[in-house]
Amino acid sequence: ITQGLTGALDALRGQTKLTEKNIADSLGQVRQALLEADVAYDVAKSFTDRVTENAIGRKVLNSINPGQQLVGVVYEELIHLMGPVDHSLHLAGKDEVTVIMLCGLQGSGKTTTCGKLSRILMNSGRRPMMVAADLQRPAAIEQLKTLGGQLDVPVHFEDPQGNSAVNVCRNGLKAAKAAGNIDTLILDTAGRLHIDDDLMKELEQIDNRLHPKQVLFVCDAMTGQDAVNSAKAFNEALELDGVILTKLDGDARGGAALSVKHVTGVPIKYVGVGEQLDKLQEFHPDRMAERILGMGDMRSLVEEAQAKFDQEEMEAAEEKMREGKFTLDTFLSTMKQMKKLGPMGEVMKMIPGMGGAVEAMGDMNPDDDMKQIEGIIQSMTPHERSNPDVIDISRRRRIAKGSGVDPADVNKLLKDFGGMQGMMSKMAGMSIRERMRAVKE
Ligand code: GDP
Ligand code: MG
To answer: Which residues form a coiled coil (predicted)?
Structure first.
């Protein structure tokens, strides 16, 4: 886990002016943070160059809080470059069939995204049909048919033998028009592991014959640095209209968003945040900027949490954090709440300050060790849970025995908790700006 922006700010600690020199030092670290977030090298470099210009321009205006000022510039610039926000798929009226074409490398998530898009379209009152135009992999047609079955969306498919993708797409459009009630046609095209001419020719043919209203590039956020090359190639061949960035539920720090936007210039429309069909969300540059900078994505968490969290319990926990009373009980109930959201690591990264907390937990795997943590904490008395300081050697031994672990495990938990406690009470309830300030001070 990267230190991200914290390191960059450390360099500015105690400085009173933004000078060319200290900007350069700090932006070197910002650039490093960007590279660690998988932003392509050239993109990171031109980004920091731009920020330098902007920051120096502002130094006369405001020479107090240089770290805050610089982070402000970096943050705004990231948002600026990943925007503007345009979620629209520019659909025509329902009396005609709007064609949307998805393209991208193999495994990037095209077929899954076809299903997810269909679902979103249906929820907004449209009637989509999907076309199985990936004739390369026999399983691809079956995969799309299965999705169609789950969603109750018609799928046009044909025998791939001796057939061509452009032919399947053309027939798909005919079928959609003939059906009478279809207003959107989504083409699921083939991908390759690497960009190759045959694939590009096939896609160009479809583009030329069907004239899709939207050509969307589906890009796996985990591919990081390579995203630039594939985005460039697809954009040159097809003139993309938008990007869908997938697999942002994984470890990806989101740098691909900046890179892909930089090379294609087209808006990022949606992000995929899971394998399930409801895991497609509108793209928000501010959230992505926070993620790239390692600041945690509070709003996404709050939104997702609303559905699943026990609101009262969480509010009580937050209140305690705010009062600086983050006890082992709070720790345990917070962990339990988070667990409802899915794999712990992913969730924890989204909470401000928790990126650091995950680090403070060292090599402890939050998922695997959850049971053990729970066991240890439950072997403590209520008094011990609220006042971990009283846990001396003999108490440690008793707790270890009670929970069937080694006294060293109890030690480790207390140490990890101590690190997290400091961070949590400092960060809880703060706005992003306040958090930035807190990191600096
Ligand atoms: P295609 O080859 O481009 O059609 O890719 P698929 O749609 O078949 O997806 C490849 C794999 O990525 C499948 O296992 C999907 O479930 C998975 N996948 C697609 N989108 C996402 C996403 O947003 N998050 C996660 N975790 N997995 C995804
Ligand atoms: Mg596919």
So the answer is: 295-322
Tens of pLDDT, residues 218-238: 999 998 778 888 999 999 999
Query: Does the annotation place 193 within a ligand binding site?
Result: no
Ligand number with the minimum distance to the CA of 132: 2
Residues with CB under 5 A from ligand 2 (ion): 110-111, 140
User: Is residue 17 annotated as involved in ligand binding?
Assistant: no
104 is in an annotated binding site: yes
238 phi and psi angles, rounded to 5 deg: -125, -10
Q: Is the CB of 136 under 6 A from ligand 1?
A: no
d(CA 111, CA 147): 9
203 and 315 belong to one structural domain: no
Write the ipTM. 0.99
Pocket test for ligand 1, best of 114, 188, 275 (most atoms within 8 A of CB): 275
Residue 90 lies in a domain: no
Instruction: Answer yes or no: is 249 a known binding residue.
Output: yes
pLDDT at 359: 46
Position 16 scores a pLDDT of 57
Which ligand sits nearest to residue 275's alpha carbon? 1
- 192 and 250 both lie in a single domain: yes
Residue span of the structural domain in which 33 resides: 5-82
CATH (domain of 37): 1.20.120.140
246 Cβ below 6 A of ligand 1: yes
pLDDT mean by block of 10 residues, the chain; 441 residues: 47 59 75 84 87 64 50 79 91 95 96 98 97 92 97 97 96 97 97 86 96 97 86 93 94 88 95 96 90 60 46 61 72 67 48 45 54 88 90 94 92 82 60 42 39
Q: Which ligand is nearest to the CA of 193?
A: 1
Strand order in the sheet with 268-272: 155-156, 128-133, 184-189, 98-103, 214-220, 242-246, 268-272, 280-282
How many structural domains is the chain composed of? 3
CATH code for the domain in which residue 387 is found: 1.10.260.30
Q: Are 374 and 324 in contact (CB under 8 A)?
A: no
- DSSP-derived pairing of the beta strands 268-272 and 280-282: antiparallel
pLDDT of residue 259: 92
284 and 141: one domain? yes
Whose CA is closest to 384, among 362, 364, 414? 414
Q: How far is CA 319 from the centre of its chain?
A: 28
